[in-house]
Amino acid sequence: MAMIEFRNVSKWYGSFQVLKDCTTTVEKGEVVVVCGPSGSGKSTLIKCVNGLEPFQRGDVVVNGQSVGAKGTKLPQLRAKIGMVFQHFELFPHMDVTANLNLAQVRVLGRSLDEATAKSHALLERVGMIDHAKKFPGQLSGGQQQRVAIARGLAMDPIAMLFDEPTSALDPEMINEVLDVMVELAREGMTMMCVTHEMGFARKVAHRVIFMDQGEIVEDAPKEEFFGTPRSERAQQFLSKILHH
Amino acid sequence: MDFGFLTQPAFSGGGTYFDWVLSGIKWTMLVSVCAWLIAFTIGSVLGVMRTTKLRWLYLPAAAYVELFRNIPLLVQMFIWYFVIPEIVPKALGTWMKQGMPMPEFWSAVLALGFYTASRVAEQVRSGIQSIPAGQTQAALATGLTMPQVYRHLLLPMGYRIVIPPLTSEFLTIFKNSSVALTIGVLELTAQARTISEYTFRTFEIFTLATVVYVLITMAVTVLMQFVETRVRVPGYVGTGK
Amino acid sequence: MFSAFDFDVIQRSLPYLWQGMLFSLGLTLLAMLGGIVLGTLLALMRLSSHRAISLPAAAYVNLLRSTPLILVIFWFYFLVPIAVKQLTGNPYASGIGPFYSALIAFTLFEAAYYCEIIRAGIQSVPAGQVHAAQALGLNYPQATLLVVLPQAFRNMVPILLTQGIILFQDTSLVYVVGLTDFMGAASKVAQRDGRLVEMYLFAALVYFILCFSASYFVKRLQLRITPPR
Question: Across the interface, do B182 and C175 touch by the CB < 8 Å criterion?
Fold first, then answer.
């Protein structure tokens, strides 16, 4: 069953086209990695899934629900999809637990006790329970990103989106975040990840999408992508990021 | 310097010149605080309106800001005091001129309040806009609605960021309250000038008035620094990344 | 309601108002120039590591910034004639005229505000620039004059001009000592002819058009200096 389905999505900023007729699907339980040079539109693509980036043509269908349709209540749709950002985007004026509780209470209508119990369980799982009462500014980047993943999971999402989750991290902190993501993938979470971490892709991805200049150039099973990429652009890109 | 004249009975009114100074301080504070209530309330609403993407909200707010900050306060004060009573419906105008208690005071408060609201609006707007866009996206991604994002993220963070500039706006109102003397409010600067005319102790009385302004400014600054530390977000430095 | 308005009074007094406007603009430009020069000196003093230099500058700036402009104007109208008598040794000297008294008051007042703008501008130049200049063998005055100040002023031009617009609005306060700037001229006509509504609304309109166009120009300039991301 297709969890996320892109149907001929196109998007323009003024006259500049950032997405060109993008079509692909993410099945339930599938882990899809999106890669490509900067400015290729991969972050824009992933933000179309929960309607953070509006698009002008085509549609995205999430779990049978259209993102672009007029009647769609975006807040309800977004509540079902967890998202992790490059710069973590924890709310600086709330402690870690309050960051996880906010949407549980305000969007899902959980009681504070219920939400806190859930938050603490998830913080335990990402190894951050000792920091439950700290503020984001008191944590390292890797710690903040693990909290951000827990914040997404707290909503019991049907899928998780990752937008370059390790690009803003110091090298020594990348693995603590990737470990959490690998574990999540192995548990069968549906995941769409924009990342350059090809090691992560090799380990857990089912499919790899390669984008360039707003187009999906390559969309192939992992083995095929790393074995013999069909397009020259993908070959060039891989040789650049793998041989450094 | 000889401040002995302060205890002398004043030219009129029964008290001493020192009583005149106290009365001046009282009116300076009253004008400032009342005007600040208007400026803070209206300025906050306008500032928030300007951060939305809805044309019918931000355009009127932008027009207000441009209108009120591009006309000198003195001119605005004259318009509230001399012009408004003439151009409103006749019955209201007559009441403003003859029935309304303390017309100078209220004109000064309205002029100063509406003028400063445009400055407060700009501070609130830039405070909210200095919060990185990713924060709003993250809040929306969890399913919060835009009003909830304002309520739980943009306003609590925005107001923390604008405490220092709003403090200086309050101090600006406090200093600008002296413009009220042009329409006859006997605040501190007006009293100082009047006393200097009656006693010729110009140097002493101006020094006293200046010291009072400086002391109140210092007191407000210290108080707001205390407030700032109380609401400071742990580990949060500035707004940049 | 406009039927009772007498727009003719504006037309009749235009030459007089123009004289007032020249006074306002002249006072603004000269006080701005003097304020920036003096403000730069004060800013450099405040940034000095010698307390004997930085403390007096800080005291001056904080004193003027916590005093209302009207009180400062009153102060100078009281002090300047005394100073002139002292300096010339002539007890019957009549002062230096209202324009120069106002100019001195505004220059000294605005210098305190310009000082803080310029200080922030200087501090916004990265320390690495000073180090690089020193590594090339420039001494402190050379590094300041040739490397720091040019960069600082380039970034500050919009803020300095915005402060100039505020200064232009502030010059209307010379009304309190009876001078005939634009607002003073408008209010004298208003009271002479009993036409307060027309004259004050006209004054507001003129100030609005001038200040709005000037701040629009500054905004455009700012976009050219720091292009939007």
Answer: yes
3-state secondary structure of A166: coil
CA dist., res. C156 & res. C121, Å (int): 6
Q: Is B224 on the interface with C (CB under 8 A)?
A: no
| Contact between chains at C66 and B203 (C-beta distance less than 8 A) | no
Closest-CA residue of chain B to A53 = B137
Q: What is the pTM of this model?
A: 0.85
pLDDT digits (tens, 9 = 90+) for B209-222: 999 999 999 999 99
For the record, the structure tokens of C176 come out as 């309190």
Q: Which residues pair with A159 in a beta bridge?
A: A81
- Residues A166-183 pLDDT 10s: 999 999 999 999 999 999
d(CA A212, CA A207): 17
The two beta strands, A215-221 and A207-212, are antiparallel
CA distance B239 to chain A (A): 10
| pLDDT tens-digit readout, B154-181 | 999 999 999 999 998 999 999 999 999 9
d(CA C104, CA C86): 17
Whether C75 contacts chain B with CB within 8 A: yes
Separation CA C115–CA C58 (nearest Å): 10
Q: Which of C107, B148, B57 is nearest to A78 (CA)?
A: B148
Q: How far is A76 from chain B (nearest CA, A)?
A: 6
CB-based touch A/B (3+ pairs, under 8 A): yes
Closest CA to B179 of B167, B187, B171, B169: B187
Pairwise CB contact (< 8 Å): B153 & A79: no
Q: Using CB atoms and an 8 Å cut-off, which of residues 120-159 of chain B contact chain C?
A: none
The amino acid at C13: S
- From B197, B22, B171, B177, select the one nearest C70 (Cα to Cα): B177
Report yes or no: B139 at the A interface, CB cutoff 8 Å. Answer: yes
Using DSSP's 3-state secondary structure scheme, residue A177 falls into: helix
Kindly give the pairing relationship between strand A2-13 and strand A57-62.
antiparallel
Q: Report the residue of chain B nearest C170, measured CA to CA.
A: B72
Q: Which residues contact B25 (CB under 8 A, 6 or more apart)?
A: B188, B212
Q: Determine the Cα–Cα distance for residues B218 and A221; give it in Å rounded to an integer.
A: 68
CA separation for the pair A241, B234 (Å, rounded): 38
Residue carrying the six token digits 């003097």: C34
Q: What is the pLDDT of residues A19-46, one digit of tens each?
A: 999 999 999 999 999 999 988 999 999 9
CB atoms within 10 A of CB B32: 26
**ipTM, 2 dp:** 0.90
| Burial tier of A38 (Cβ tally within 10 Å: 0-12, 13-18, 19+) | exposed
Compare all CA atoms of chain A with the CA of B145 and give the residue at the minimum distance: A75
Cross-chain residue pair A75–B144, CB shorter than 8 Å: yes
Strand partners, A218: A210
